[in-house]
Amino acid sequence: MTGTATKAQLDARPRAHWLALGAASAGVGAALLGFSLLGPQTGVAAADGTSETSAGPSTAHRADAARTTGAQRRAERRAARAETRQARRAVRTADAEPASTEPAVDTSTVEPRTAVTSTRSTLFNKAPTVTPIQLTGQVDGPITGTIGASDPDGDPLTYRIRRSPREGSVQLADDGTYTYTPNERFDGVDTFRVAVLDGSPFRPFGTSATSLINQGAITFQFRYTDGGNTWTPERQQALQDVAGQLTGYVMVTKPVTLTYDVGVETDAGSLASAGSALTSGYAGFWRTVVQNKLITGVDSNGSAADGQIDWNFSYVWGLDDSVGADEYDFTSTALHELLHTLGFLSQINKAGSNTGRSWTSFDRFVVAADGHKPISAFYTWNTADNARLTGASGGLFFGGANAVAAYGGPVPLYTPNPWESGSSMSHLDDTTFVGADDQLMNAKAGKGPGVRALSAVELGILKDLGYQVVTPQNSALAFAGLLVLVRRRRRAGSSVGEDAA
After folding, report:
1. What's the pLDDT tens digit per position in 389-427?
2. Among 263, 124, 278, 257, which Cα is nearest to 203's?
3. Which of 266, 283, 336, 398 could form a disulfide with 411 if both were Cys (CB 3.0 to 4.6 A apart)?
């Protein structure tokens, strides 16, 4: 199976881097050798005695001399005495400063030690770290960013453009910040390469990194299926505006157009629902069609819609920045639903229904409180973890490295009891993330202004799912079908996490 989702599959909708190194080695060896030769010559008391002894003729030399003529013996003795005197003069010259009045550390022995220390410092100098990031202009306006370089040794850094952008120009400041100006060929995505140098002779080319530029690189096309009866022009524009906001969080390497079928939600307890088909129905962890297109630029399903959104307009919605106390926040909910299509969703089902072996890439990171994974290396579900699906033993968690780093541990997922189809496992835990810590990807939303920004935890999850992030049922066919997640309303006066359906 190629990973392409067919029209039939879309209709099945379960909801839910020798020479430089050699030169460096020789240089260090020479410095260390110089230290071993100079050390005894510059000693305080033992230097003269040692030099005299080592400079005198050896026993083997005298035995050979006994077999030579008297003239040869006398010539050899004169030469030996001359060599000894020369050696003494050399040592005394080296020890020009009296050693008896100063500690050994303050004599000329300091010089070779300093030379070795300097060489060692140069050799073990750490390379700068570089993490380029675009700061502004992902949607529109001036495009600025930073190379994000730092040096572990505190060395001053210089910056060089190694490869210029193809569809624009870049001005690089001394502090590593930059301004990019697109030209008429700009298609939404460009790159340039920068080298960061810390003056180390062992890294004449510096540390290099590629800076990715996006502006308007992601296009959302919404195809409204209700005939315009409920999705009025104002509502359509509101959805388009929210989609533009989402592009400010994700960088792509190729221009991408995402298509969505947008309709009407008929579940009375649901505010909205959204999903995207998986790229395969075979055993494994798979991206959604939307996710795969954003990360790789590959269209997995041809002319079919990449995702689906359904909206319940029987509730009163605040479409702009002014959301009344009796209105639901359209922007918050739309961001939430679109994020599901980006892969923030699970294929894990209620106990007894996890007999397939095709899962979302999100499911790869699901763990229990003790760190074990309920999905085996053979992509089968461990039924011993069934009770965790409804909160037993702490429930289940998202254990991706970036999310864990942001949260400080495994991130609690929504595992209410009883199981909630379309909500369980595909959201953050409503009973953990409450009050000021309320998250965009909580399962339920109340009236009034909602969360309109992704938290560090949610951005961490997106990184784990494969994105370059910016910080502004059982058959193969069924498992490759469209996964749709539901956001429910939070009933007035109900406890957080209570099912309002």
Report:
1. 999 999 999 999 999 999 999 999 999 999 999 999 999
2. 124
3. 398
Let me know: does 209 contact 150? Beta carbons within 8 Å.
no
Tens digits of residue pLDDT in 88-144: 444 343 444 444 444 433 333 334 444 443 444 455 778 899 999 999 999 999 999
- Write the CB contacts of 362 (distance below 8 Å, at least 6 apart in sequence): 343, 344, 345, 346, 398, 426, 461, 465
Same domain, 72 and 173: no
Q: Which residues of 222-260 are buried (b: 16+ CB within 10 A; e: fewer)?
A: bebeeeeebbeeebeebbeebbbbbbbbbbbeeebebbb
Is 171 in the same domain as 38? Answer: no
413 DSSP 8-state letter: B
Does residue 500 lie in a domain region?
no
In a domain, 98, yes or no: yes
Q: Which two tokens stand for residue 377?
A: 């290396």
Q: Outline where DSSP puts E strands in 265-326.
A: 270-277, 284-286, 307-311, 317-318
Contacts of residue 68, Cβ cutoff 8 Å, sequence gap at least 6:
76
- In this structure, the strands spanning 177-182 and 143-146 are antiparallel
Cα dihedral 295/299/304/309 (nearest 10)? 10
Q: Which of 164, 191, 214 is at the close of a domain? A: 214
Question: Total domain count for the chain?
Answer: 3
Q: What pTM does this model have?
A: 0.71
Q: What are phi and psi of 99, to 5 degrees?
A: -95, -10
Neighbours of 299 (CB within 10 A): 17
Closest to 131 measured CA to CA, from 212, 198, 205: 212
